[in-house]
Amino acid sequence: MSLVRAERRRFIKRRLTIWMVVIGVLILGAVITGFALTHEKPTAATLAAAEAAAERDYKEQTLMFERYKAECEANAGTDAAMKCQGPEREWFKAEHYMPPQFNFKEMFGETLIVWAAITAMVGFVLGATFVGAEWSSGSMMNLLTWRPRRMNVLGTKLGVALGWMTVVGVVTFGLWGGAQYILGKTSGTTAGMTPGTWQSFGLTGLRGVAMILAFTALGFGLASLGRHTALALGVAIAVVIVGQIGLAIVLQMANVKFAEAYLIPVHMYTWLNKEVTLQDFSGQVTCDQNGCDAPELILRYTSTGYVALGVIAVVLALAFVSMRKRDVA
């Protein structure tokens, strides 16, 4: 049996692989279920109920204004005509009283970060355990006895992990998009979908799959360096708790400009959406109905991708150098 075929079977038949994929799909399904329960397609009945609610609120606000109109005019003096104006009917629109509907075009791009983040987490754990378990159980030494070419063995394992996670990423992306499209049909709208929009969604999905593979490779490289799954998971916990939560608190206390730019989730979102505009509120900022005059910083996915690629390349290079030079016993 070839090494590639053996590793493919080993990866897909591991109980952790099956359970992690199942858990990831269940989490995504729970999110879709939440969307389905909180969104509703407009009907004549809901429109009538919303119009009745708007009319009811308008009358209640008008009655309340009439009660305090005399007092308001007495206190306002010459400015009474400006300050003591009652509510107007156009303020109370029926659409403000209707349950939210699921707009597929608007929601799909915004919620892709949920799919990508959850699947990337699955990829990180599977990539780390796929090689880490081999070292901790002693299977790696036995495998190298049968196939002593170390670089070939480690490279094959990495390739198999990335290949299977590509399949997982593509399939879950299809399920995620299909479920949301059905949700748009049943609990909202799918209007505005053009060939260009579909192409944009497809390219965003490709970037999402690339992010999943990046986390898979990162987990694989860290576990291979430490020759144990615990190193990769320990680094992940340290980065999340110390490097992100702690860093966010410190940056906020220090009033650092564009503090969000130092947080990984922001860069994940940037990678999927091509660019993100951050505003700095650490200084003196004034806001009005047209927005705020806070300084802005635009993050683009190209710079984020280069940094991520560099980190992963370094980790994998160290993993392969360690595999080549260190004793495997």
From TrEMBL:
Keywords: Membrane, Transmembrane, Transmembrane helix. This is ABC transporter permease. GO terms for molecular function: ABC-type transporter activity. The chain crosses the membrane at residues 16-37, 112-133, 154-178, 198-223, 230-254, 305-323. It holds the Pfam family ABC2_membrane_2. The keyword Transmembrane applies. It comes from Rhizocola hellebori. GO terms for cellular component: plasma membrane.
